[in-house]
Amino acid sequence: MKQRPDDIVLVEGDNDLNVQMVPIALVGWVLPTGHIDPSGRWYNPERAYDDDINTDANPSSSYYNQPLELTLDSPIYCNKVKICADSYGREHFDYCAANVKVEVYYDGAYHTIHSGLLGPDYDGYPARKLWVELLIPAGTKLVSKARIRWNVLYSGIYFWEFAFWSEG
User: Fold this and answer.
1) Cβ(45)–Cβ(58) under 8 Å?
2) Is pLDDT of 1 > 50?
3) What's the confidence (pLDDT) of residue 114?
């Protein structure tokens, strides 16, 4: 068999090749692997990506509009994200739809993909915990992180979970 100069051949024994194993990128939902809390005002920020819909992250109330960045160890090709969040106590002191700004980082900058209510509004009990998918308007991009902040002050803010969609 004729080899091209860029072919890699592994043989038993000592050789000068350094081989690096890399994980295969899978298609599906990917949880963030870390976070950055620039204001230091978020309580339990790791709960926004702990894969447990019954735990939440939240900012101290007077810092509701401070962002929480959700990071990935390595960038992924992504065309959407999903978020599960609720708020509490706007008018009737019941749970209600979260009013948030969601930004995704690609091409060297943050890009807003949503600002407003997550899903249809409601007032009620218990918390809805509804997953809402948000498309990246520019299509599939190499994404490395996302940033979330609330637009409106509520008595309670519940950031249940977040995930990125990996295109593989």
Assistant:
1) no
2) no
3) 95
Which run of H or of E encompasses 141?
Answer: strand 141-150
CATH 2.60.120.260 fits 28-167, yes or no: yes
From CA 162, how far away is CA 45, in angstroms rounded? 11
What is the tens place of the pLDDT at every residue in 124-151? 666 678 899 999 999 999 999 999 998 8
Contact criterion met (CB below 8 Å) for 111 and 138: yes
**Beta strands of 31-118 (E only): which ranges?**
34-36, 42-43, 58-59, 68-78, 80-88, 95-97, 99-106, 109-117
Cis peptide before 45 (omega within 30 of 0): no
Whole-prediction pTM = 0.80
Find the radius of gyration of the CA atoms of the chain: 20
